[in-house]
Amino acid sequence: MPHSVSSASPSREDEELPDAPVESATETGGVKLEDMFNDDDDEEFPASSAQDVKMESSPAPAPASAAAPGPSGVDTEVMLAFYQRLFPFRYLFQWLNHGVVPTKDFGNREFALTLQNDAYLRYQSYPTADLFRKDILKMNPSRFEIGPVYSTNPRDRKTLRGGQMKPVSKELVFDIDMTDYDDIRTCCQKANICHKCWAFVTMAIKVIDSALREDFGFEHILWVYSGRRGAHAWVCDPRARNLPDDRRRAIAGYLEILRGGSQSGKRVNIKRPLHPHVNRSLDILKNYFAQTTLVDQDTFASSEQAEKLLGLLPDKSLNEALKRKWESSPDRPSTSKWADIDALAKTGKSSTLNTTTLRDAKQDIVLEYTYPRLDAEVSKKMIHLLKSPFVIHPGTGRICVPIDPRKADEFDPLSVPTVMELLGEIDAYDAKHPAGTQDAEMPDVEGSAVNGSDIKGTRKLQDYEKTSLKPYIEFFRSFIANLLKEERAVKREREETAAPVKADPMEF
Amino acid sequence: MIRQDVHRIDPKRRATIDPKKRQFATPTYKQQDYPHRLNLYDTPPTAEITLEEFEQWAIDRLKVLAEIEACSYRNKTPADTESHILPLLAKFLPLSSNTASPNGAADPRLKNERQKDHYSHFILRLAFSATEDLRRRFARAETMLFKFRFQKDDSRERRAFIESLNLDWEPVSEEERNQVAENLLAATPALRRVDEETWYKVDWEKVAELVERRSVFMKRGKAYVPGREQLSMIMAEFTARLERSLELTSRALPRLDEDDRLTPILNHLSKNFGSAESVYSEGEGHVDGAAITASSIDSLSQHFPLCMRSLHINLRKNNHLKHFGRLQYTLFLKGIGLSLEECILFWRQSFKGKTDDEFNSQYKYNIRHAYGDVGGDVNRRGRGYPPYSCQKILGDNNVGVGQAHGCPYRHFSVDNLVGLLQSTGVHDKEVLRGVREDVGKQRYHIACNRVFEWSHKTEIKKVKEDGTWSQADLDTIVHPNTYFKRSYLLKTLAKAPPRGEA
Fold first, then answer.
1. Segment holding A233, helix H or strand E
2. What pLDDT, on a 0 to 100 scale, did the predictor assign at position A162?
């Protein structure tokens, strides 16, 4: 077996070939043995050493390879530095573990890693935060996703008989993606966003958040920027985490108002009187419609879109009148067009017009153009994986930071820090405050090893605190603190109610 | 004896046992009383009954359940079902309300009725928890019975019963109701006035269907449900509890204290559940005197129901069938009396493209397994699996690409179905129109029976006139093997005096 070779050579390769897996096949180590086991080496060497090389060599980056960005757009070295210095492993652990002592909630949780070579590793799990961090640093994935807690450890799935491993719980999740809005936004297309179209996400957050809180009574809802053009919600209440799939489907159905694809014509068909949820949503969305749809996007400016608008109005003769008017002045802005509908209706040009139907149709239009477009499939299944908070979006380099739903209006996706900016900020800070001047009395800890999940008792400034990531991590921390508080209360309650039952036989 | 009685009479004495000695003490149980007519069957019975009662009560209940199931198979209207079931219930399983007696619930007659209802339910639970299929059917029939009784119940007693259940339904106070009146009106469909209804606050998870349709008012995790949704909620609760405890029973069954007096009775009961219906007893589909061999399948296939016909056509066309198609067809062939050797021969000849080696290694084992020739002890003792019933075939809801099994009436698109029917010789416009209608209403077995009746109409008329077949022999077909048997017999009967066939 060629193990004797491979055990000797990787350590040498580390120095010589930090990031060149292709070349390792031509590496000239132990010529004789290589000749002997030629075919073995050719197949096994590059595959196994490629990862080792990347992972272990990174502390001492080789300039030649560092310049070449990975397939993802963010440099692998940068990625690793981010995991080492900034990623809040400890808080992520506490969030998923619902406590400090490691439990099954974390140990049986599935993680799925996307490696730098785009390989996708599912069913990873980690007993503790430290092992989790260690493995992430070793694998250096371009991103990773979080799945459900299973009844057994997901790594053991192959040793179990079929159907033994069942998902037990997962946060209820929602996914809003800007691409679903492509037919109604005029500013950008596809993967691009600007402040104008981010407003759609803002209103979606407000509508969904208030429905989840007021109607369903959920309290621990974490909103996370997806890194490019969308947002995710993680509902972390114990009651939400344990919902079976059919109940998740019920929630998704409750929140879904727009049905059918872009070809199916009128997509909003709701009954009157309006359900309180729809009514509240309409109140929230009215102002956005006036600002975003009519002014910022100027959605109905083109004759094509105006045609579509007419298609949603109920009365034929009114439509005719509107069409004539709009054709005569092609540059009429959306706001005026929208106002025209009421203005013309009031003049009584149409004898058949029913004011209630017109009002309903206008409400439907407001909903059609502003109501959140959820990717419902994500929410319906417990086993669905969703990108973890705080990972880097490989395309933009931006961090998937939490969004405070109370301040959703203030959130600006374009000012979310990128990983390069953050690393720069650490360097700038360290240059300004050379070690020893400020924290003289603190124990001297090797700076580069310190990160979010580190040694207790030291009050050395952590790396994230030197950067603009700080407020986001603080927010995450307070979110977790609230969650854990309830979690503890629930546990205590359970113990208290359990106690009398136990004591019962003693009472004679 | 006496000691035991003492324990039973005084439940408070339970606590007098030293906890350390508890495991050696004789178990003591709370005496069951039946304040309500209805029962959610939460507490298992504990008193003693005689063996005769055990068997008789179970059989009586079984008769009722079998009839209820039969009614639903035949798609009888609720009114028809009611008129059919009521006399049976009165005869076998009477259950009077408290108002039926001046003494109310204390009347011994009522008590006996309720005891019988309670005990027979639990006996049948034991008998029907063994397999998934039986559990599902039992739960379905019991739910229908419960619903039936629930609707018949006196409204005051019904309310008392519901209150006794502790279902976690919090009634909405008048004050709160008035506060949210506007929302209730807006959220609840077909409601004119809020004060028409009594309202309950329940956890929204309990009424998930209402939530999904957005037809209930929600506030902080509670759904405000009007009283008229009570029935569906109670039903859901009943089914959920029953399914859960059947599951538990089935797990406990192997550890049942082996009592050689009860086991035969239980086995006998579970075999006979709805004997007229889809449970297939061995040899039922066999036809005496018919030579059934590998070479005769082609000519016999004209008597096959459409599901098997379609498999046969597919097999001849492609010289191959996928796994579930083979399984469905093999079991059917087994049911009509094709022996294992002939069956292997049949498949060998049908798979023209395969070599002997391929056939032996890939297909033969499965055929032998289906016949119970190989496999685990259970499989061999049971002679393989029983042929699939219509219910089983209809229940398969993911027939994939390239697969031919399942029920054509359910799994084919209407146009393909009509095409298939026409290719098998069903051209009558009226019949095809009827089939389209049935399929549209999801009455697949009715459609299948319609085709059967049409293609055998002369023979059916004849045997009816002769009086050789009674109406019972011409009941709705709910098993492919019944279809074959009846079709074969009718055609051969008709052939006996020389007459042309359709």
1. strand A230-235
2. 61
Looking up tokens 């023209």 gives B352
A439 is a domain residue: no
For the residues of B209-224, what is the DSSP string, one character each? HHHHTT-SEEETTEEE
Determine if residue A390 is left, alpha or beta; phi over 0 gives left, psi from -120 to 50 gives alpha, anything else beta. Answer: left
ipTM of the complex: 0.73
Paired with B218 in beta bridges are B223
Of residues A175, A209, A237, A375, which has the active-site annotation?
A: A175
- Contact (Cβ atoms closer than 8 angstroms) between residue A453 and residue A89: yes
Q: What is the pLDDT of residue A213?
A: 95
* Option in B204, B211, B217 nearest A276 (CB): B217
Amino acid identity of residue B216, one-letter, is V
Please tell me the pTM assigned to this model: 0.61
**What pLDDT, in 10s, does the model give residues A400-424?**
999 999 999 999 999 999 999 999 9
Q: How far is CA B275 from CA B70, B133, B139, B281, in A?
A: 10, 15, 17, 8
Q: Given the structure tokens 């080792």, which residue do they identify?
A: A52
Q: Is B25 on the interface with A (CB under 8 A)?
A: no
- pLDDT for A64-97, tens place per residue? 333 334 444 678 899 999 999 999 999 999 999 9
Cα angle, residue A207 at apex, residues A205 and A210 outer, rounded to 5°: 95
Q: Is residue A390 part of a domain?
A: no
pLDDT at A209 over 90: yes
Give the integer Cα–Cα distance in Å for A463 and B372.
69
- The values of phi and psi at residue A266, to 5°, are -65, 125
Q: Token pair for residue B463?
A: 């045997």
Residues of chain A contacting residue B217, judged by C-beta atoms under 8 Å apart: 275-276
Domain boundary among A370, A393, A424: A370
Query: Is there a domain that residue A136 lies in?
Result: no
Are the Cβ atoms of A508 and B16 closer than 8 angstroms?
A: yes
Q: Is any Cβ of chain A less than 8 angstroms from the Cβ of B14?
A: no
Bridge partners of A169?
Answer: A149
- If we measure between CA atoms, which residue out of B109, B77, B81 comes closest to residue B96? B109
- The number of C-alpha atoms within 13 Å of A2 and in the hemisphere containing its C-beta is 20
Q: Of A374, A491, A385, which is closest to residue A170 (Cα–Cα)? A: A385
**Residue A332 vs residues A186, A238, A319, B98: alpha-carbon distances, Å:** 16, 52, 16, 76
Domain ranges, ordered by start, for chain B: 1-29, 32-162+237-271, 166-230, 294-495
DSSP A110: E
* Angle (deg, nearest 10), helices A76-85 and A129-139: 170
A334 lies in which domain range?
292-370
Using a CB-CB cut-off of 8 Å, the residues of chain A touching B212 are 249-250, 253-254
Q: Cα-Cα-Cα-Cα dihedral of B213, B214, B215, B221, to 10°? A: 120
Contact with chain A for residue B9, Cβ under 8 A: no
Closest CA to A124 of A401, A114, A91: A114
Confidence of residue B384 (pLDDT cuts 50, 70, 90): confident
CA A408 to chain centre: 15
Instruction: Give the integer Cα–Cα distance in Å for B285 and B479.
Output: 9
Examine residue A230 and state whether it is found in any structural domain, yes or no: no
Domain boundary pick from A31, A66, A101: A66
B204 touching A (Cβ < 8 Å): yes
Q: With an 8 Å Cβ cutoff, are B208 and A247 in contact?
A: yes
What CATH number has the domain spanning B32-162+237-271? 1.20.930.80
